[in-house]
Amino acid sequence: MTGWGPFDLTGKNAVVTGGAMGIGFGIAKRFVESGANVLIADINEEAANAAVWKLGDGPGKAAAMQVDVSKEGSGRGVVARCVEVFGSIDVMVNNAGIYPQVPMLQTTRELFDKVYAINLKGVAFCARAAAARMLEQGKGGKIINIASIDGLRPSMVGLAAYDSSKGGVVMFTKNFALEMAPHNIQVNAIAPGGISTEGTAKPLEGSGMTEEQMKQIMTEFAKKIPAGRLGVPDDVAKVAVFLASSASDYVTGEIVVVDGGILLT
Predict the structure, then answer these.
(1) In the chain, what is the greatest distance between 2 CA atoms, to the nearest angstrom?
(2) CATH 3.40.50.720 holds for 8-196+232-257
(3) Residues labelled catalytic
(4) Judging by DSSP bridges, how do beta strands 62-66 and 91-94 pair with one another?
(5) What are the extents of the domains in the chain?
(6) What digits encode the pLDDT tens for the residues 209-234?
(7) Distance from the CA of 82 to the CA of which of 115, 137, 160, 215 falls in 20 to 30 A?
(8) How does 214-226 read in b/e, with b if 16+ C-beta sit within 10 Å?
């Protein structure tokens, strides 16, 4: 595919955490199509390798590595691997996240800590590691954090830990953008609404629901969306291309809502 203009990512090297499936894979796919080389960093090594195989025919190249973003040093590890394989890191997409559904009165400290370790600390320290390398390179860069409309308004009972972690992503994005702006590193976030993925097709961890009940919930949620449908990963991916490209060079600290208008209701 040609003619990407200011959205062209040719020669850019990117990391997408949680890039093996769902929104992460959608972003990786669009990045490769627009010319970027992409390191898919995922906790599921088999899925990450399968994703690389699926992306094999794009203008950009893809590579995989296994990583748990909640672990100490994981951010430095993915950045080092991207530099080793592709020569630099120009774009960091912090997409890895979990969303167990457990009422707060039943939530343990261990579960709360796990959600924060992946959804907020994972984002913060992967962003920190990417920014440090971008500063060394001296060419600026792009950091894109995947937040959620739940970080702006709660959608259902049982997501207190998830919602608060995503609210943290929103404010981390804004503060880190302020810190990085003088260095030509733009830090933005995307807040997806209801997106149909492999994950959302299954009952949320801890919810006690069947697949049929989960399907019914998603069907009812879709009816409330002004656009009349659930989103798909590509709806988020195309926004990610904008935020990764020169088209967004004067945009930083922003939260781009991709929700079909549900927050308007």
Answers:
(1) 53
(2) yes
(3) 162
(4) unpaired
(5) 8-196+232-257
(6) 677 877 788 888 899 999 999 999 99
(7) 115
(8) beebeeebbeebe
